[in-house]
């Protein structure tokens, strides 16, 4: 029975590990699944050590058998069989992963930027303002197509790399703002989930999220009027 239950667990372990390896980059494996894999590997190793112990020390010597030793080994075997059965039952996962957290603006603009002198001056001024704790709102304006969006994404990446912020989130406002869509963009990049349907309640949840211990830089792009 010990060997039979061990092979069952090894089979389940192999199946779970295959599912973990097949998980794509958009999914994150659950901590409980990784913990189960470690426990299963450890238990299989313990059972194999016990089997070796029984094979080596469990036989009779010159017709003399240690009843006490055999009894203790039998108890160990029974305990391991129960552990194998229970762990195998716990390894029948319906799902092993969940959607991975969405990265911040560094994913949206991973490349380098070549600065003109005027762009470099603007970048330096924004970073200087970001370092100033007395400033909580910065505006960048210019003609359409002048590279404002690329600039703010690059500055956001740099500010995070310089450890000025823990997280950088970006939402597009546009000429005809959709408040719920803007809230959704910000919330997803902050890792927040809405249970509320109305805009006011969602705004409160975002506000509470922004007051967390994390330092969060919010970039609102393509703003045409007071929001």
Secondary-structure blueprint of this entry?
Elements: H1 2-21, E1 27-29, H2 31-57, H3 67-90, E2 97-99, H4 105-108, H5 117-131, H6 148-161, E3 167-174, H7 179-190, H8 199-210, E4 216-223
Parallel strand pairs: 3-4
Antiparallel strand pairs: 1-2
Question: Quick summary of this structure?
Answer:
The chain has 8 helices and 4 strands; from the N terminus they run H-E-H-H-E-H-H-H-E-H-H-E. The protein has 227 residues and is mainly α.
Main traits of this protein?
56% helix, two-stranded parallel sheet, mainly alpha, 227 residues
> Residue ranges: pLDDT <50 for 5 or more in a row?
none
Mean pLDDT: 85
Strand content: 5-15%
Major pleated sheet: 2 strands, antiparallel
Protein name: NB-ARC domain-containing protein
Domain NB-ARC: 122-226
Pfam families: NB-ARC
InterPro entries: NB-ARC (IPR002182), P-loop_NTPase (IPR027417), Plant_NBS-LRR (IPR050905)
How would you characterize this protein structure?
The protein has helices spanning 2-21, 31-57, 67-90, 105-108, 117-131, 148-161, 179-190, 199-210; strands at 27-29, 97-99, 167-174, 216-223. It has 227 residues and is mainly alpha-helical. The radius of gyration is 29 Å and the shape is elongated. A two-stranded antiparallel ribbon has the order 1-2. It has a two-stranded parallel sheet with strand order 3-4. Helices cover 56% and strands 10% of the residues. The protein has 8 helices and 4 strands, in the order αβααβαααβααβ.
């Amino acid at each position: 029975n010990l060997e039979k239950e061990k092979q069952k667990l090894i089979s389940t372990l192999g199946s779970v590990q295959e599912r973990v390896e097949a998980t794509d980059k958009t999914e994150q494996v659950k901590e409980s699944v990784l913990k189960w894999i470690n426990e299963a590997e450890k238990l299989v190793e313990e059972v194999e050590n016990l089997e070796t112990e029984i094979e080596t020390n469990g036989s009779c010597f010159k017709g003399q058998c240690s009843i006490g030793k055999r009894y203790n080994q039998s108890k160990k075997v029974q305990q391991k069989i129960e552990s194998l059965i229970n762990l195998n039952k716990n390894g029948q996962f319906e799902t092993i992963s969940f959607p991975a957290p969405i990265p911040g603006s560094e994913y949206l603009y991973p490349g380098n930027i070549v600065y003109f002198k005027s762009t470099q001056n603007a970048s330096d001024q924004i970073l200087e303002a970001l370092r100033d704790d007395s400033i909580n709102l910065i505006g960048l304006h210019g003609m359409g197509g002048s590279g404002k969006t690329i600039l703010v994404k690059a500055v956001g990446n740099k500010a995070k790399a310089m450890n000025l912020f823990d997280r950088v989130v970006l939402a597009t406002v546009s000429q005809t703002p959709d408040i719920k869509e803007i809230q959704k963009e910000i919330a997803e990049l902050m890792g927040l989930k809405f249970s509320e349907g109305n805009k006011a309640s969602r705004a409160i949840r975002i506000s509470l999220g922004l007051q967390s211990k994390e330092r969060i830089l919010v970039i609102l792009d393509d703003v045409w009027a007071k929001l």
